Automatic annotation (TrEMBL):
Secretion signal span: none
The protein's name in its UniProt record: ABC transporter ATP-binding protein
Major location (coarse): membrane
InterPro entries xrefs: AAA+_ATPase (IPR003593), ABC_transp_ATP-bind (IPR050319), ABC_transporter-like_ATP-bd (IPR003439), ABC_transporter-like_CS (IPR017871), Oligopep_ABC_C (IPR013563), P-loop_NTPase (IPR027417)
Membrane topology: Peripheral membrane protein
Subcellular location(s) of the protein: Cell inner membrane
Length: 321
């Protein structure tokens, strides 16, 4: 497996304001020692409840925020410390698809301008005529009519707006799409259409995905491999079928048990595992999951578990293993 992207020990801490004069500044541990690889052509799913650090991980990888520690390699080059000038051509290949297609599309831009903007930023293609042809081709590829180029984002449904967001990401010949909850703002009936479009485009363009969702069923549908995050850490990582059939970490088991059998809107409330996520400012000692864990032992509150390979390609951080 040649890695397209490799993250090693990625960490992001935020120093918060002092609660009282002279008291120490609390540290929010948003992402803690996260490592993973995404192979060329692979979809790597990142799943976890909101606040688990998934979006922060995505932003770190794209250098939208600065890492506190760790490194990221893209096509064999360490990118976090590259000068902006050297990073720009690589950044062009790494595009983001956002959760809220309404919020991420500038409402004062026509569709044409939205899709052209990244081409202008990266000066590819160079001429206005080539760009216009490319906009038309991209709209057709994402299932929209080329005549929609003259319209405004508000004239489209949520699903159509996400198609525009995807066309925008593809405008500059991306190789890696980082999709952060790309369907969670959409109606369930539209979600499958967008996911299937993303799969088709992946094959057509030879894309790789870092695919982020809180919904395990969505991640399962999309991913070749899955990592589960809890309180800023990856607690389990395995091939898709393996994690579904033989989940090892008690938190993963809890997530799977919470997936409703019939995915209809009324059942959504059931998709929340029991117990509250502790604050990342004061994570529980030892295994951060221990206050919610049905399998916890004495050691769990004292010592943080180390990630271990329990089967080929299947890694879990839990004292049970
Ligand atoms: Fe549960 Fe202990 Fe494993 Fe943490 S280390 S998940 S508390 S059994
Ligand atoms: Mg998020």
């Amino acid at each position: 497996m040649t890695a397209l992207l490799k993250a090693e020990g990625l960490t992001k801490h935020y120093r918060l304001a002092r609660p009282r004069l002279l008291s120490p500044r609390p540290v929010l541990r948003a992402v803690e020692d996260v490592s993973f690889e995404i192979a060329e052509g692979e979809t790597f799913g990142l799943v976890g409840e909101s606040g688990s650090g998934k979006s922060t991980t995505a932003r770190l990888v794209l250098r939208l925020i600065a890492a506190t520690a760790g490194r990221v390699e893209y096509r064999g080059r360490s990118i976090l410390e590259l000068p902006a000038r050297d990073f720009r051509p690589l950044r062009r290949e790494m595009q983001m698809v956002f959760q809220d297609p309404a919020g991420s599309l500038n409402p004062s831009y026509r569709v044409r301008d939205l899709i052209e903007e990244p081409m202008i930023v990266h000066r590819t293609p160079a001429t206005a005529r080539e760009r216009a042809e490319r906009v038309a081709a991209l709209l057709a590829q994402v299932g929209l009519d080329p005549s929609h180029a003259a319209r405004w984002p508000h004239e489209f449904s949520g699903g159509q707006r996400q198609r525009i967001g995807i066309a925008r990401a593809l405008a500059v010949e991306a190789r890696l799409l980082v999709a952060d909850e790309p369907v969670s703002a959409l109606d369930v009936s539209v979600q499958a259409q967008i996911l299937n479009l993303m799969r088709t485009l992946k094959d057509q363009h030879g894309l790789s995905y870092l695919f982020i969702a809180h919904d395990l069923a969505v991640v399962k549908h999309m991913s070749d491999r899955v990592a589960v995050m809890y309180l800023g850490r990856i607690v389990e990582q395995a091939p898709r079928a393996e994690i579904w059939r033989r989940p090892a970490h008690p938190y993963t088991k809890m997530l799977i048990a919470a997936v409703p059998r019939a995915r209809v809107p009324d059942h959504r409330a059931a998709a929340v595992p029991p117990g509250e996520i502790p604050s990342p400012v004061a994570p529980p000692p030892g295994c951060a999951f221990h206050p919610r864990c049905p399998a916890r032992m004495a050691i769990c509150a004292q010592q943080a578990p180390v990630a271990k390979e329990i089967a080929p390609g299947h890694v879990a951080a839990c004292h049970l293993y």
